[in-house]
Design goal:
Blueprint lengths: L1 H36 L5 E4 L4 E4 L12 H10 L7 H7 L19 E3 L30 E3 L19 E4 L17 E2 L6 H16 L3 E3 L12 H15 L5 E8 L8 E4 L2 E4 L1 E6 L5 H18 L7 E4 L11 E8 L4 H19 L1
Parallel strand pairs: 3-4, 3-9, 5-7, 5-8, 8-13, 11-12
Antiparallel strand pairs: 1-2, 2-6, 9-10, 11-13
């Protein structure tokens, strides 16, 4: 009986593979046809609030969604990107056990408690203690650490003619949607999308640290996200030519997720969006750009342990072949709030100031 069941499962997998291959072959043809005859299907735009959401086939080339794992998960309940899901299908009771902690605890919110009583504590020492009354969300386990953010950074004398930082957005319309509402993940409203985070980052760097910043708000992901990196390439090239003084070039994004717990940190009962660095390995500047991301990541986590989600390496360019000063930075995700991302910009600004001092 067991062998028969396994044969049925294998047959289902074979069928799904054939479907996936068919989609891979014929979807580009169908997409071209739809673009010509039904261009209004590309995105749904609400004129009342300037919001939009995109269908899967229009996701940026370097951010494609793999449909096969989704199909497999919904048909047989196995998520090939989550190894625990297979065991849940075999042993139903395991679904009631939170075994994610056996693999990693990075998907759980981090609580950072101010250490006001130990001003002389070494910055490399991290004490771990239980909070008095931590607020748990969705019964997630919580990691509690103390910040080491103690040293002030001396303010530079700002030189607007020689900016040190460029901020731009390949996916300019990415917005924040903590309630997971329909058609709220993208917007052209600069006061609601990732541009607002970039503007706050610029303001903090200039006003608090005297670091001149150029913030480009060109929209590169309309009418679709497709070839967004190709569209933002001339933008970066022009600034590189105009400002040889640039030390850091930040392509500012927000991530996309189905759970805000892994992209959220709580500092003194206020919620922040956790940053993450993405480095493209498919270019000549990979090592230099990785080193830059690693230094910034280390500075952030030295100030606030576990605040950054770390560095992700991808087999892509992300325009990082244009310069060895490129940083792709994602602040939180679609399920974080704009306020959480703006709060994080202040910590990121300080990390940049420390890096540039």
């Amino acid at each position: 009986m067991k062998k028969r069941y396994e044969i049925i499962i294998l047959n289902i997998i074979y069928i799904l593979l054939l479907i996936w291959l068919s989609i891979s072959i014929f979807s580009p043809i169908m997409l071209a046809k739809n673009l010509y005859f039904n261009s209004f299907y590309i995105s749904t735009i609400s004129k009342s609030n300037s919001t939009m959401d995109y269908i899967y086939k229009n996701i940026e080339d370097e951010d494609k969604v793999n449909l096969f794992p989704l199909i497999l998960k919904h048909i047989i309940g196995v998520d090939i990107e989550d190894p625990t899901s297979y065991f849940e299908t075999q042993i139903p009771l395991i679904g009631y056990i939170d075994i994610s902690n056996l693999f990693t605890n990075h998907d759980n919110p981090v609580i950072i408690v101010a250490d006001n009583d130990k001003k002389e504590q070494n910055e490399n020492d991290i004490d771990i203690e239980e909070p008095k009354e931590p607020t748990k969300k969705d019964n997630d386990s919580i990691t509690v650490v103390k910040p080491n953010d103690k040293n002030d950074v001396e303010k530079k004398k700002i030189d607007k003619g020689k900016p040190l930082v460029l901020i731009f957005h390949t996916h300019t319309t990415e917005s924040f949607n903590p309630n997971n509402s329909k058609d709220r993940n993208f917007t052209t409203d600069y006061n609601l999308n990732i541009v607002k985070v970039g503007e706050e980052l610029k303001k903090e760097l200039e006003e608090k640290y005297g670091i001149a910043v150029v913030h480009d708000i060109t929209i590169h992901d309309l009418p679709t996200r497709e070839k967004g990196y190709e569209k933002s390439r001339p933008t970066v090239s022009a600034y590189l030519k105009k400002y040889p003084s640039l030390k850091i070039i930040i392509d500012l994004h927000r991530d996309a997720t189905t759970s805000s717990s892994k992209t959220t940190v709580i500092i003194n009962e206020e919620r922040y969006a956790r940053p993450m660095f993405v480095v493209g390995a498919k270019n000549k500047n990979y090592k230099a750009n990785y080193d830059k991301a690693e230094k910034l990541n280390t500075i952030i986590n030295n100030m606030y342990p576990n605040f950054s989600r770390g560095i992700v390496k991808q087999n892509a360019k992300y325009n990082q072949d244009l310069s060895d000063k490129m940083v792709l930075l994602e602040v939180g995700s679609n399920l974080n709030s704009l306020d959480e991302a703006v709060r994080s910009s202040k910590i990121i600004a300080k990390a940049i100031a420390i890096y540039l001092k």
